[in-house]
Fold these 4 entries.
Entry 1:
Amino acid sequence: MQQGGSPTPFDRNMGTKMAAKAVEWFIDKLTMETEFNTPESSVMCGIQRRQYVFSPIQALKLYTDFKHRIACKQWWLKLRPLLRILAKHESTYEEEGMQVEEPDEAIA
């Protein structure tokens, strides 16, 4: 869930929907299953392609870099240059702008 700062209406709405989905999943598992030692009995709720899905924790091991505590494939890093431009971040122009060399003053 959201970390830091005050939650926005979007955060509150998403949290409410996730909680409702989690309760539905929990009730479904309690009424339909008798064994709770399968990989599907320990899951994490997330959003994939605008849908709330439950992923088994064991399956998520393949996509997690536990040493650095991040996802192995960080697709959102490709968006950083665009976000810097949209935010008018000063380093955007220094790092990504064209380098103009100063003319040699000894020639004049």
Note: Residues 9-32 form the longest helix (24 residues).
Entry 2:
Amino acid sequence: MSTNRSKEKYDSLARYYDQRWERYLEVTHKVAIDLLEPKGNDIILDASGGTGLLIERIISTIGDEGKFYLCDISKEMLDIAENRLIKFRNVYLSQQDVHHLDFDDSYFSKVLSASSFHYYTEPYEVLCNFHRILKHEGALIIVDWCSNSLHFKLFNILLRLLSKYHVNIYSSNELKSLIEKANFVVEKIINFKHGLWNLVGIRAIKQR
């Protein structure tokens, strides 16, 4: 999916996104937070962080000691995130494409991508960006759709044919290989389900 198409899609979804996907977000955010293991002194980036709901949930667990950054390509999603998170002085929002992140090298202790990786047109490039901005032994957490099952492989093919927004759903092994290629060591993989949705959560550590 091109950057412009991604922006177009999520600008149109922004107003009802959290309500439409409420239960799905509860399930995937719980896994993401468990893998993230947030601590008070963390500097965390929520990449493609949308409406800020996940950051709000993280802050509720550890308070305002750390720093939280959220970037997203959609201005409409960021407007909702700003309204949601304006009361927190340690949250910073920016409109950015994950393929071209404007952050300093080795700045973040943790980077999180939740339910977005299947939209990235250049996934290896994105992972290299995440590697660049993470501190040594910083953690990368990815939670996303997963094509381990036959029905999700078929769903992936169907979406590629019918949706101008869709790029690719990866199996857990494919995602693991991509992450390792970008010089991460995969520490943990969780395969889980929500209804018919096959999902994967991965925690990886930056090496060199």
Note: The longest strand covers residues 134-145.
Entry 3:
Amino acid sequence: MTEEKTKSKNFTSILIPTSLYKKLEEKMKETEFSSVSSLVTHIVREYLAKLKEEKEVFSEEEEEEIKERLRALGYID
């Protein structure tokens, strides 16, 4: 299997407005990113990580601590 075919299996294309692409292209020049694709990948990963953090109100450790306190108070078994 050629390298090009391997690469295509690991990536996909998305469509964005040209005006947005041009803005990203200008921003990219101010960063260490070498392509708009790598910049967009970084932005999307950060966004998804932030969403995950917002979803998790308590860490597993904090949740267990709360459960222990509720057990000690007799609210749960």
Note: Confidence is low (pLDDT under 50) at residues 1-6.
Entry 4:
Amino acid sequence: MLRMRYSDTVEEQQGAGRTMPATSVILVGTIVAMAVLQMHWPSPLEFGRAKPDLLLLLVLYFAFTGGPEKAIGIGLLAGFLEDMLSAGPLGLNIFCKVLLGYTVGVVSTRLITEHPVVMTSIAFLATVCQTALLILLSFLHRDGVPVGFMFLHVGIPMALYNSLLAPLCFYGMDRLFTRAPTRAPLRGEGLQHE
């Protein structure tokens, strides 16, 4: 399902039918759209007090497909946007998303990430780790966060929500970022002459 791998060459990745600037515009647009959707998630779709963390799922997708370097960049952008849209201190979401993107990017080179069980398991564990990190950093920042309540009533339901949405989101992102070329190759294209 996840077609672009960390070990692919630049030519293979750019051969997906889009130029690099077009892919960057689509990527930034996707980050902004997912942040807006996450901030304005419909109330009937909430699971208790929890909403899915769509930006974390985006970081995990790029950790699987692009490796740790790409996940760090996406985590930086997504975390910065999430910090700007939230009322918390600047840098908490950046730190968590960059750390998790790097860690999952390194670990995913050793796993078969195309399997839905692996996707859901990593999404669950990454969400639990992110919740624990955010609670710990908020506690150290002296925000007066009720640790047990936040972890049990927000963190675990969010982890379940993310793990259920992970295969669907990864499939959609895979279709968006690795589309087939829009035209057939012309006669002689792709042939290598000595």
Note: The chain has one domain: 10-177.
